Amino acid sequence: MKKILVAYFSASGVTARTAKEMAKAVKADLYEICPAEAYTDADLNWMDKNSRSTLEMNDSSCRPAIAQPVKDMEQYDTILIGFPIWWYVEPRIVDTFLESYDFSGKTLIPFATSGGSGIGKAEKSLKEHCPNAVWKKGQLLNGTGAAEWAKRMIGA
Ligand SMILES: Cc1cc2nc3c(=O)[nH]c(=O)nc-3n(C[C@H](O)[C@H](O)[C@H](O)COP(=O)(O)O)c2cc1C
């Protein structure tokens, strides 16, 4: 039987709600990509050139540490991976996640929430960081429809 993981990063709770709804709908395990050091409101201020998020996103080699690894990633065939769009792409901590495991042959399905930007640029970046996975088309999920989309994507 296919075992599914919904892995997500969420700085202010929007993506978390979507991820939880999805995990319930497709009976998947849920894993939060928790930063070793939580983001404060000041860290998330994209109008501040010196905020933590701005500095991280300006440095493509930045890999913020994750608090806890996934328990036995081997058991999962399909991973739905969710995140907020930051500066049109995925937050750097998602790159940390992608580079922490061997996803060869596993199916990865991205989803995102945003203030309006699309997921296209992030999808391209995700593939560059993890070329060995089998990537399915991603989806921006602002608002409703997460459960139905996830079911369709995993063929449930
Ligand atoms: C540092 C930062 C950069 C962001 N950049 C974008 C962006 O480029 N385009 C966009 O539409 N929204 C952007 N947003 C808004 C978030 O994508 C949006 O609020 C998202 O739903 C937050 O999800 P979360 O609560 O799971 O963290 C940005 C937010 C932050 C904190």
Please give the share of residues in helix: 25-40%
Order of helices and strands: EHEHEHEHEEH
Task: Provide a count of the helices.
Answer: 5
Using only C-alpha atoms, the radius of gyration works out to 15 Å
Average pLDDT for all residues: 96
Low-confidence stretches: none
Summarize the biggest pleated sheet: 6 strands, parallel
Report the bound ligands by name, code or SMILES.
flavin mononucleotide
Q: How many E-type strands?
A: 6
Please state roughly what percent of the residues sit in beta strands, choosing from under 5%, 5-15%, 15-25%, 25-35%, 35-45% or over 45%: 15-25%
Structural class, please? alpha/beta
Coarse shape: globular
Distance between termini?
12 Å
Could you characterize the architecture of this molecule?
- The protein contains 5 helices and 6 strands, in the order E-H-E-H-E-H-E-H-E-E-H.
- Strand 3, helix 3 (92-98) and strand 4 form a beta-alpha-beta unit.
- Helices cover 28% and strands 17% of the residues.
- Strands 1, 2, 3, 4, 5 and 6 form a 6-stranded parallel sheet that branches.
- It is globular, with a radius of gyration of 15 Å.
- It has helices at residues 14-25, 52-57, 92-98, 120-129, 146-154; strands at residues 4-8, 29-32, 78-84, 107-113, 134-135, 139-140.
- With 156 residues, the chain is α/β, with parallel strands linked by helices.
- Bound molecules: flavin mononucleotide.
